[in-house]
């Protein structure tokens, strides 16, 4: 699928400072206008998708013993951390499975180091794989939007460890609320590099507009189908 915005060229970044000396605006990108749209869309989404939320909860209770929700600590606007919500897609002993794989499989260890993802991830359950392919596992993040932790559109939420990979472009990430969808997600996330992901986030922070958000939201559904088929 064609990119919503061409970010192949040189991008204008917010700042070249490191995080320790980063100057981030006192309000996130988009301010009141973006936040108002977020609240309306998230509330409408929860209401419209409530049967699907219930179905996912029920399936996890019946077929995947363990907690229904997975809470993972992520970094948000201005470096504030929050619990990013997802439907649980991994086995209860996910950490141990990952450690065993990385210690025994050099190729998997290299893939994990480069992308923080694994194509053949031993931690993911069968039900979890279906939730991930359809992106239904991310529906609980609508509640993160209501709480103000996230936005409908924005950079992909990252961990403290991942944030270091943004290097001098970190201000771009910290200037935004992380998003359920974003420029990177609709620009071939299954095949793109982490470096391009950072470039997309920096471009978004610098060039935010309601028009850009609308383009990204409209491109999200076909991008989901494309990723599911990948």
Automatic annotation (TrEMBL):
Transmembrane portions of the chain: 39-63
Keywords (A to Z) from UniProt: Cell membrane, Exopolysaccharide synthesis, Membrane, Transferase, Transmembrane, Transmembrane helix
Residues in Bacterial sugar transferase domain copies: 34-225
Cell compartments where the protein resides: Cell membrane
Keyword Transmembrane belongs to the record: yes
Pfam families per UniProt: Bac_transf (PF02397)
UniProt entry tagged with the keyword Transmembrane: yes
Family: Belongs to the bacterial sugar transferase family.
Protein name: Exopolysaccharide production protein ExoY
Species of provenance: Bradyrhizobium yuanmingense
């Amino acid at each position: 699928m064609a990119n919503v915005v061409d970010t192949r060229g040189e991008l204008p970044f917010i700042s070249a400072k490191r995080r320790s000396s980063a100057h981030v605006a006192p309000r996130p990108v988009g301010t009141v206008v973006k936040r108002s749209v977020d609240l309306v869309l998230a509330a409408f989404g929860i209401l419209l998708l409530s049967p699907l939320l219930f179905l996912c909860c029920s399936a996890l209770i019946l077929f995947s013993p363990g907690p229904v929700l997975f809470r993972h600590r992520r970094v948000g606007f201005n470096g504030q951390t929050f619990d990013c919500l997802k439907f649980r897609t991994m086995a209860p002993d996910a950490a141990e499975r990952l450690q065993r794989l990385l210690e025994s499989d050099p190729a998997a260890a290299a893939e994990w180091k480069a992308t923080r993802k694994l194509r053949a991830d031993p931690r993911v359950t069968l039900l979890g794989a279906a939730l991930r392919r359809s992106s239904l596992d991310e529906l609980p993040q609508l509640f993160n939007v209501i709480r103000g932790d996230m936005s409908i559109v924005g950079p992909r939420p990252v961990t403290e460890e991942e944030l270091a990979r943004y290097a001098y472009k970190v201000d771009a990430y910290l200037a935004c609320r992380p998003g359920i969808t974003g420029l990177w997600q609709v620009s071939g996330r299954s095949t793109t590099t982490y470096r391009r992901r950072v470039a997309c986030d920096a471009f978004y922070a610098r060039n935010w507009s309601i028009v850009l958000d609308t383009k990204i939201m409209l491109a999200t559904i076909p991008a989901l189908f494309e990723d599911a088929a990948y």
